[in-house]
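worker-03 picked up job from queue 'complexes'. Input manifest follows; two sequence lines, order preserved.
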Amino acid sequence: NAGVTQTPKFQVLKTGQSMTLQCAQDMNHNSMYWYRQDPGMGLRLIYYSASEGTTDKGEVPNGYNVSRLNKREFSLRLESAAPSQTSVYFCASQKVAGGWQETQYFGPGTRLLVL
Amino acid sequence: ILNVEQSPQSLHVQEGDSTNFTCSFPSSNFYALHWYRWETAKSPEALFVMTLNGDEKKKGRISATLNTKEGYSYLYIKGSQPEDSATYLCAFRGGADGLTFGKGTHLIIQP
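worker-03 finished. Artifact:
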């Protein structure tokens, strides 16, 4: 099992450019999450998908959109990148959204630099 | 926005010494408290998920306790080793909509 995979690992964008961060999991998990991690801050939830076909906003959703393409894949899109979106982005998955004893499994992260 | 605080922010410990650090979280609407270990250039990895007041979990030299009534959890490391150097994150679950993470405690073990 590869677990949670993310592409790309690193990306440089110019202000105003768009891009999609890809995430896939092979653990047959129902729930998937996107977090961003900034210096001096904890991991902050951007969007999540409790199950295939549903998505919901987290703590910091502005400037992002998501698509739960199927059970395996959950993508994060930046339509018009801004320097404030320079961050490390982590995707995570969990077997069941309401399973509060369930652990989240994290991908390796995507480092994004917006100039 | 939920308030999950971890202290201290960073900690230098001599190899062989024991150490502990704290996570405080809201005492209402508690579902679970997670601890993760995050090594540099890697992904966070789960250590413990704790759900019941008074819970105590142990994994090798690392253990954790939980007090949901007063809203805190302690993580203990006994006989620290260089490989314990990492950032330790706690995360509060108050429902189905994801975890709220603290900023972490950055632990450095000095040989």
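worker-03 released lock.
Residues 39 and 86 of chain B are 5 Å apart (CA to CA).
The mean pLDDT of chain B is 92.
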